[in-house]
Amino acid sequence: MININKNNLKKILYKMMLIRETDLQISKRYSEDKMRCPTHLSVGQECVPSVIGTFTTKKDLCVGSHRSHAHYLGKGGSLKKFISELYGKLTGCSKGRGGSMHLTDLSVGFVGSTAIVSNTIPVGVGLSLTSNILKKKQTVIIYLGDASVEEGVFFESLNFAIVKKIPVIFVCENNFYSVYSPLSVRQPPNRKIYKMVRGFNIKSFKANGNMFKDVVQTFLKAKKFVEEKKMPIFLEFQTYRWYEHCGPNIDDHLNYRNKKELLYWKKNDPVNILQDFLIKKKLISTNSISIMKNLILRKIDSAFKYAERSPFPKNKDLFKYLYK
Ligand SMILES: Cc1ncc(C[n+]2csc(CCOP(=O)(O)OP(=O)(O)O)c2C)c(N)n1
Ligand SMILES: [Mg+2]
C-alpha cells in the first residue's frame, strides 16, 4: 500500500467538497431558470476526478463527457468561469457558448467535454499521440462512462491506441447506468468491462471509485505504467450518481434503481469516507472541516454573483471563436 502524504489527502478532500457543494448549489438554484442548459450532476462521483486532479498538473491534458463538472473542477478549473458557463455568459470557460456539457479551458489542460457519448475518446487518443511524438512529459486522461464502451468509436480508439503504442489513460467511471438502463439490459450478462478490454491486449485495472486509497493507488500505478512503458492503460472505477441522470433533482421515486443499492452507495459516500479517515488519524479536526466547508460555500456564492453580473455574448459575435 502506498503512503499518501497529508497535504495530498487534504487537497483531495478540498476538491471533493468543492465539487459536492458546487453541484448541490446548482441543484438548489436551477429552478431560478438562469442556467439555461441541461446539467448532469457529479454528486456521489467526486473521488476519481479529485484524485486525478491532485496527481496531475495543468500541463497534463484531459477530455471529459456530458457529466464533466467534476472533471473540470477536479483539474483545477476556475469556479467563476464554470458557473459563468452555465449562465451562458461571456466570462464562461467556453465563452458562454457551451453550457454544462461543453466545457473547455486550455489554461488548466481541460481540452474539452461534449454531449455526444464517446465523442471525446478519439480526441484524447489523438492528443496523447501528438504529445508522445513531440516527446512532451504530459499525462493524457480520457474520462468515459460505462455506456461509452457500447460505442463503435470506443473500440476503434482502443485498437488504435494499442497498435500505435499511445500512452493514454482511459478512465471509465462505471456508475452502472446509462440514463435509466442498468448494465444488465445493455451489456452481456456478468461481463466485466475491465476484463472485456483485455481482449485488445490492453493492461487494465478495476477499483472502488469511492475509496480514495484505491483510486490513488490505481491511478499512480497507471501513471507510472504509461510513462515507463509508453503504452495505453484502462482503468475501471465503480461509483454511483445520487441525482437523476440529467437535471437538478433526485429521481428515486421512479424506482429504476433498487433501494438497497441506493442505500449501499450512499453509505459509501466518498466525501464521508475521506473525512472520517482524516479525523480518525487526527490529520484534520471536525472544526477545520466546517471552516473548509464555509470557505467553499462563500467561494461558490461569489462565483454565482460573478456569473450574474457578467455580460452575455453579443449576437454579432456568435461565430467569433468558431474557426480559431
Ligand atoms: C451517441 C449518443 N447516444 C446517446 C446519447 C444520449 N445519452 C446522453 S448521456 C447518456 C448516458 C451515458 O451513460 P454513461 O456513459 O454511462 O455516463 P453517465 O451518464 O452514467 O455518467 C446517453 C445514452 C448521446 N448523448 N450520444
Ligand atoms: Mg453510466
What does this structure look like?
By secondary structure, the protein is of the alpha/beta class. 42% of the residues lie in helices and 11% in strands. It has 11 helices and 8 strands. The strands form 2 sheets. Strands 2-1-3-4-8-7 form a 6-stranded parallel sheet, sandwiched between helices. A two-stranded antiparallel ribbon has the order 5-6. It is globular, with a radius of gyration of 19 Å. The structure holds thiamine diphosphate and magnesium ion. Magnesium ion (MG) binds next to strand 5.
Structural class: alpha/beta
Q: Strand percentage, roughly?
A: 5-15%
Q: Unreliable runs, pLDDT <50, ≥5 residues? A: none
N-to-C SSE string, H for helix and E for strand: HHEHHEHEHEEEHEHEHHH
Arithmetic mean of pLDDT = 97
Could you give the count of β-strands?
Answer: 8
**Chain oligomer state:** single chain
Alpha plus pi helix count: 11
The proportion of residues forming helix, as a percent range, comes to 40-55%
Describe the biggest sheet? 6 strands, parallel
Calculate the terminal CA-CA distance, rounded to whole Å. 47 Å
Q: What is the topology, as strand order, of the major beta sheet?
A: 2-1-3-4-8-7
The radius of gyration over CA amounts to 19 Å
| Bound small molecules, deduplicated | thiamine diphosphate, magnesium ion
Shape: globular
How is this structure best summarized?
With 324 residues, the chain is of the alpha/beta class. The chain has helices at residues 6-29, 47-54, 69-74, 79-86, 121-133, 152-163, 193-196, 212-229, 259-267, 270-280, 286-309, and strands at residues 61-64, 110-113, 140-145, 168-174, 177-178, 181-182, 203-208, 233-238.
